[in-house]
Amino acid sequence: MIRELLETTEFLEKKGFDNPEIGIILGTGLGKLVHELEIISEVSYNHIPGFPTATVEFHKGKLIFGKLEGKKVIVMEGRFHIYEGYSLFDVTFPVRIMKRLGIKKLLISNASGAINPEFKKGDLMLIDDHINLQGGSPLAFRGVEQLGTRFTDMSAPYDARTGALMEEVAKEHKFTLHKGVYASVVGPQLETRAEYRYLKIIGADAVGMSTVPEVIVANHLGIPVSAVSVLTDECDPNNLEPVNIQDILEMSAKAEPDMITLFKEVIKRLEY
Protein backbone atom coordinates (compact mmCIF):
# COMPACT_ATOMS: atom_id res chain seq x y z
CA MET A 1 0.00 0.00 0.00
CA ILE A 2 2.69 2.48 1.01
CA ARG A 3 4.85 1.36 -1.91
CA GLU A 4 1.98 1.94 -4.34
CA LEU A 5 1.36 5.45 -2.97
CA LEU A 6 5.07 6.26 -3.31
CA GLU A 7 5.26 4.89 -6.84
CA THR A 8 2.26 6.93 -8.00
CA THR A 9 3.51 10.10 -6.34
CA GLU A 10 6.98 9.75 -7.86
CA PHE A 11 5.47 9.12 -11.31
CA LEU A 12 3.43 12.33 -11.16
CA GLU A 13 6.32 14.38 -9.80
CA LYS A 14 8.36 13.26 -12.81
CA LYS A 15 5.46 14.39 -15.02
CA GLY A 16 5.79 17.92 -13.62
CA PHE A 17 3.18 17.87 -10.85
CA ASP A 18 5.18 20.25 -8.69
CA ASN A 19 3.81 21.10 -5.22
CA PRO A 20 0.13 21.84 -6.02
CA GLU A 21 -1.59 24.03 -3.45
CA ILE A 22 -5.24 23.13 -4.09
CA GLY A 23 -6.90 19.92 -5.20
CA ILE A 24 -10.17 20.01 -7.18
CA ILE A 25 -12.50 17.09 -7.92
CA LEU A 26 -14.98 17.82 -10.71
CA GLY A 27 -18.33 16.04 -10.69
CA THR A 28 -20.76 14.92 -13.38
CA GLY A 29 -21.16 17.49 -16.15
CA LEU A 30 -18.85 19.97 -14.44
CA GLY A 31 -15.67 19.70 -16.49
CA LYS A 32 -15.45 23.14 -18.11
CA LEU A 33 -13.41 24.56 -15.25
CA VAL A 34 -10.37 23.00 -16.94
CA HIS A 35 -10.77 25.53 -19.78
CA GLU A 36 -9.92 28.23 -17.24
CA LEU A 37 -6.59 26.61 -16.34
CA GLU A 38 -3.12 27.45 -17.53
CA ILE A 39 -2.25 23.77 -18.02
CA ILE A 40 1.29 22.69 -17.16
CA SER A 41 0.89 18.91 -17.31
CA GLU A 42 -1.89 16.37 -17.77
CA VAL A 43 -2.00 12.57 -17.64
CA SER A 44 -4.82 10.14 -18.45
CA TYR A 45 -5.82 8.02 -15.47
CA ASN A 46 -5.03 4.80 -17.31
CA HIS A 47 -1.39 5.91 -17.64
CA ILE A 48 -0.93 6.58 -13.89
CA PRO A 49 0.40 3.65 -11.84
CA GLY A 50 -2.10 2.55 -9.19
CA PHE A 51 -4.93 4.75 -10.47
CA PRO A 52 -8.33 3.30 -11.27
CA THR A 53 -9.73 4.05 -14.73
CA ALA A 54 -12.91 6.13 -15.09
CA THR A 55 -15.58 3.92 -16.66
CA VAL A 56 -18.43 6.42 -16.76
CA GLU A 57 -18.74 7.70 -20.32
CA PHE A 58 -19.22 11.36 -19.38
CA HIS A 59 -16.23 11.45 -17.01
CA LYS A 60 -13.09 12.39 -18.96
CA GLY A 61 -10.52 10.56 -16.85
CA LYS A 62 -7.58 12.98 -16.67
CA LEU A 63 -5.42 14.36 -13.89
CA ILE A 64 -4.41 17.93 -14.71
CA PHE A 65 -1.82 20.20 -13.11
CA GLY A 66 -1.81 23.91 -13.79
CA LYS A 67 -2.42 27.41 -12.54
CA LEU A 68 -5.76 29.00 -11.70
CA GLU A 69 -6.09 32.51 -10.29
CA GLY A 70 -2.36 32.54 -9.58
CA LYS A 71 -2.35 29.31 -7.57
CA LYS A 72 -1.06 25.86 -8.48
CA VAL A 73 -3.93 23.38 -8.67
CA ILE A 74 -4.35 19.70 -9.41
CA VAL A 75 -7.70 18.84 -11.01
CA MET A 76 -9.44 15.50 -11.30
CA GLU A 77 -11.42 15.72 -14.53
CA GLY A 78 -13.70 12.84 -13.68
CA ARG A 79 -13.91 10.86 -10.44
CA PHE A 80 -14.45 7.26 -9.35
CA HIS A 81 -17.51 5.69 -7.73
CA ILE A 82 -18.17 2.45 -5.90
CA TYR A 83 -20.99 1.70 -8.39
CA GLU A 84 -18.25 1.24 -11.01
CA GLY A 85 -17.05 -1.78 -9.03
CA TYR A 86 -14.21 -0.02 -7.22
CA SER A 87 -13.41 -0.32 -3.53
CA LEU A 88 -13.63 2.70 -1.27
CA PHE A 89 -9.83 2.68 -1.10
CA ASP A 90 -9.71 2.89 -4.93
CA VAL A 91 -12.25 5.72 -4.98
CA THR A 92 -10.22 7.79 -2.53
CA PHE A 93 -6.72 6.84 -3.73
CA PRO A 94 -6.37 10.14 -5.69
CA VAL A 95 -7.01 12.18 -2.52
CA ARG A 96 -4.13 10.41 -0.80
CA ILE A 97 -1.91 11.11 -3.83
CA MET A 98 -2.88 14.80 -3.92
CA LYS A 99 -1.96 15.10 -0.25
CA ARG A 100 1.44 13.51 -0.90
CA LEU A 101 2.00 15.91 -3.79
CA GLY A 102 1.40 18.84 -1.44
CA ILE A 103 -2.19 20.15 -1.56
CA LYS A 104 -3.32 22.28 1.37
CA LYS A 105 -7.05 22.54 0.45
CA LEU A 106 -9.52 20.32 -1.38
CA LEU A 107 -12.56 21.56 -3.32
CA ILE A 108 -15.18 19.07 -4.54
CA SER A 109 -18.17 19.43 -6.84
CA ASN A 110 -20.94 16.98 -7.64
CA ALA A 111 -24.34 16.69 -9.26
CA SER A 112 -27.14 15.71 -6.90
CA GLY A 113 -30.90 15.58 -6.51
CA ALA A 114 -32.75 18.12 -4.37
CA ILE A 115 -34.65 16.54 -1.46
CA ASN A 116 -35.47 19.81 0.30
CA PRO A 117 -38.62 21.14 -1.41
CA GLU A 118 -37.34 24.72 -1.10
CA PHE A 119 -34.30 23.89 -3.26
CA LYS A 120 -34.78 24.00 -7.04
CA LYS A 121 -32.92 22.35 -9.89
CA GLY A 122 -30.19 24.60 -11.23
CA ASP A 123 -29.39 25.90 -7.72
CA LEU A 124 -26.10 25.26 -5.94
CA MET A 125 -25.84 23.83 -2.43
CA LEU A 126 -22.86 24.23 -0.12
CA ILE A 127 -22.53 20.95 1.76
CA ASP A 128 -22.53 21.69 5.48
CA ASP A 129 -22.73 18.08 6.68
CA HIS A 130 -23.38 14.64 5.26
CA ILE A 131 -24.97 11.23 5.82
CA ASN A 132 -22.98 8.21 4.68
CA LEU A 133 -25.35 5.59 3.23
CA GLN A 134 -22.76 3.81 1.11
CA GLY A 135 -22.45 0.87 3.47
CA GLY A 136 -18.77 1.23 4.28
CA SER A 137 -15.85 3.48 5.13
CA PRO A 138 -12.68 4.28 3.15
CA LEU A 139 -10.83 3.97 6.48
CA ALA A 140 -11.99 0.42 7.22
CA PHE A 141 -8.93 -1.55 6.16
CA ARG A 142 -5.98 -3.18 7.87
CA GLY A 143 -3.02 -0.83 8.17
CA VAL A 144 -5.00 2.43 7.98
CA GLU A 145 -3.12 3.70 11.05
CA GLN A 146 0.02 3.92 8.88
CA LEU A 147 -1.69 6.69 6.90
CA GLY A 148 -3.42 8.67 9.65
CA THR A 149 -5.51 8.41 12.81
CA ARG A 150 -7.87 5.43 12.60
CA PHE A 151 -10.67 7.07 14.63
CA THR A 152 -10.98 10.27 12.60
CA ASP A 153 -13.14 13.01 14.10
CA MET A 154 -16.05 14.03 11.85
CA SER A 155 -17.79 16.60 14.07
CA ALA A 156 -17.09 19.31 11.49
CA PRO A 157 -16.05 17.57 8.24
CA TYR A 158 -16.34 20.67 6.00
CA ASP A 159 -14.08 23.69 6.33
CA ALA A 160 -16.10 26.56 7.76
CA ARG A 161 -13.68 29.25 6.60
CA THR A 162 -13.81 28.22 2.95
CA GLY A 163 -17.58 27.76 3.22
CA ALA A 164 -17.95 31.34 4.44
CA LEU A 165 -15.88 32.52 1.46
CA MET A 166 -18.21 30.63 -0.88
CA GLU A 167 -21.28 32.24 0.65
CA GLU A 168 -19.62 35.64 0.31
CA VAL A 169 -18.86 35.03 -3.39
CA ALA A 170 -22.40 33.81 -4.14
CA LYS A 171 -23.87 36.91 -2.50
CA GLU A 172 -21.55 39.23 -4.44
CA HIS A 173 -22.35 37.55 -7.77
CA LYS A 174 -26.05 37.23 -6.99
CA PHE A 175 -26.63 33.52 -7.46
CA THR A 176 -28.28 31.05 -5.12
CA LEU A 177 -26.09 29.01 -2.80
CA HIS A 178 -28.10 27.00 -0.31
CA LYS A 179 -26.49 25.27 2.65
CA GLY A 180 -27.53 21.76 3.52
CA VAL A 181 -26.94 18.10 4.28
CA TYR A 182 -25.82 15.72 1.52
CA ALA A 183 -26.70 12.02 1.63
CA SER A 184 -24.37 9.72 -0.29
CA VAL A 185 -25.82 6.45 -1.62
CA VAL A 186 -24.32 3.63 -3.68
CA GLY A 187 -26.28 3.97 -6.95
CA PRO A 188 -26.14 3.81 -9.89
CA GLN A 189 -29.93 3.52 -9.91
CA LEU A 190 -31.83 6.61 -8.82
CA GLU A 191 -34.06 6.52 -5.76
CA THR A 192 -37.61 5.25 -5.36
CA ARG A 193 -40.40 7.42 -3.96
CA ALA A 194 -40.12 5.62 -0.62
CA GLU A 195 -36.37 6.21 -0.53
CA TYR A 196 -36.82 9.92 -1.19
CA ARG A 197 -39.31 10.08 1.70
CA TYR A 198 -36.83 8.28 3.93
CA LEU A 199 -34.00 10.63 2.97
CA LYS A 200 -36.14 13.64 3.82
CA ILE A 201 -37.11 12.15 7.19
CA ILE A 202 -33.49 11.55 8.22
CA GLY A 203 -32.50 15.12 7.38
CA ALA A 204 -31.01 15.07 3.89
CA ASP A 205 -31.36 18.15 1.69
CA ALA A 206 -29.76 16.52 -1.36
CA VAL A 207 -28.71 13.05 -2.49
CA GLY A 208 -25.90 11.79 -4.71
CA MET A 209 -23.49 8.91 -5.28
CA SER A 210 -20.08 10.41 -4.47
CA THR A 211 -18.13 12.94 -2.39
CA VAL A 212 -18.49 11.49 1.12
CA PRO A 213 -15.64 8.95 0.77
CA GLU A 214 -13.28 11.67 -0.46
CA VAL A 215 -14.34 13.97 2.38
CA ILE A 216 -13.73 11.27 4.99
CA VAL A 217 -10.23 10.66 3.64
CA ALA A 218 -9.49 14.40 3.46
CA ASN A 219 -10.36 14.62 7.16
CA HIS A 220 -8.24 11.55 7.85
CA LEU A 221 -5.28 13.31 6.20
CA GLY A 222 -5.94 16.70 7.80
CA ILE A 223 -6.87 18.47 4.54
CA PRO A 224 -9.49 21.24 4.89
CA VAL A 225 -12.23 20.33 2.41
CA SER A 226 -15.28 22.08 0.96
CA ALA A 227 -17.92 20.63 -1.36
CA VAL A 228 -20.70 22.04 -3.51
CA SER A 229 -23.61 20.24 -5.18
CA VAL A 230 -25.26 21.31 -8.41
CA LEU A 231 -28.91 20.36 -7.92
CA THR A 232 -29.91 18.72 -11.19
CA ASP A 233 -33.41 17.45 -10.37
CA GLU A 234 -36.17 17.86 -7.81
CA CYS A 235 -36.99 14.72 -5.84
CA ASP A 236 -40.57 15.25 -4.67
CA PRO A 237 -41.92 11.74 -4.04
CA ASN A 238 -45.50 12.94 -4.42
CA ASN A 239 -44.84 14.39 -7.88
CA LEU A 240 -41.94 12.31 -9.08
CA GLU A 241 -41.10 12.45 -12.76
CA PRO A 242 -38.72 10.08 -14.58
CA VAL A 243 -35.18 11.45 -14.83
CA ASN A 244 -32.52 10.34 -17.29
CA ILE A 245 -28.82 11.09 -17.33
CA GLN A 246 -29.18 13.51 -20.26
CA ASP A 247 -31.50 15.70 -18.16
CA ILE A 248 -28.91 15.69 -15.37
CA LEU A 249 -26.10 16.64 -17.75
CA GLU A 250 -28.13 19.47 -19.27
CA MET A 251 -28.96 20.93 -15.86
CA SER A 252 -25.32 20.61 -14.78
CA ALA A 253 -24.27 22.56 -17.88
CA LYS A 254 -26.82 25.27 -17.11
CA ALA A 255 -25.52 25.75 -13.56
CA GLU A 256 -21.84 25.27 -14.40
CA PRO A 257 -20.99 28.96 -14.99
CA ASP A 258 -21.97 29.78 -11.40
CA MET A 259 -19.91 26.85 -10.14
CA ILE A 260 -16.88 28.04 -12.13
CA THR A 261 -17.27 31.58 -10.79
CA LEU A 262 -17.57 30.22 -7.26
CA PHE A 263 -14.45 28.07 -7.44
CA LYS A 264 -12.33 30.69 -9.24
CA GLU A 265 -13.21 33.47 -6.82
CA VAL A 266 -12.70 31.27 -3.77
CA ILE A 267 -9.30 30.07 -5.05
CA LYS A 268 -8.29 33.69 -5.66
CA ARG A 269 -9.11 34.57 -2.05
CA LEU A 270 -7.82 31.46 -0.28
CA GLU A 271 -4.96 31.91 2.15
CA TYR A 272 -3.13 29.23 4.09
If you had to describe this structure to a student in words, what would you say it looks like?
By secondary structure, the protein is of the alpha/beta class. It has one domain: Nucleoside phosphorylase domain (Rossmann fold, 3-Layer(aba) Sandwich). The protein contains six helices and nine strands. Strands 5-8-7-6-9 form a five-stranded mixed β-barrel. α1 packs across α2, α2 packs across α5 and α3 crosses α6. The longest helix has 25 residues. The chain is globular. The chain starts with a helix and ends with a helix. The model has no long low-confidence stretch (mean pLDDT 92). One of its GO terms (cellular component) is cytoplasm. Belongs to the PNP/MTAP phosphorylase family. GO terms for molecular function: purine-nucleoside phosphorylase activity. It holds the Pfam family PNP_UDP_1.
**How much of the residues is beta strand, in percent?**
15-25%
Measured as a percent range, the helix fraction is 25-40%
Distance between the termini: 30 Å
Topology-level CATH name:
Rossmann fold
Computed Rg? 18 Å
Mean pLDDT: 92
Number of helices: 6
The first-level CATH class name: Alpha Beta
Morphology = globular
Which class of secondary structure composition applies to the elements?
alpha/beta
What is the string of helix and strand elements? HEEEEHEEHEHEHEH
Which spans have pLDDT < 50 for at least 5 consecutive residues? Answer: none
Largest sheet: 5 strands, mixed, barrel
Give me the CATH superfamily. Answer: Nucleoside phosphorylase domain
Order of strands, main sheet, comes to: 5-8-7-6-9
EC number: 2.4.2.1
GO biological process, one term: nucleoside metabolic process
Function: The purine nucleoside phosphorylases catalyze the phosphorolytic breakdown of the N-glycosidic bond in the beta-(deoxy)ribonucleoside molecules, with the formation of the corresponding free purine bases and pentose-1-phosphate.
GO cellular component, one term: cytoplasm
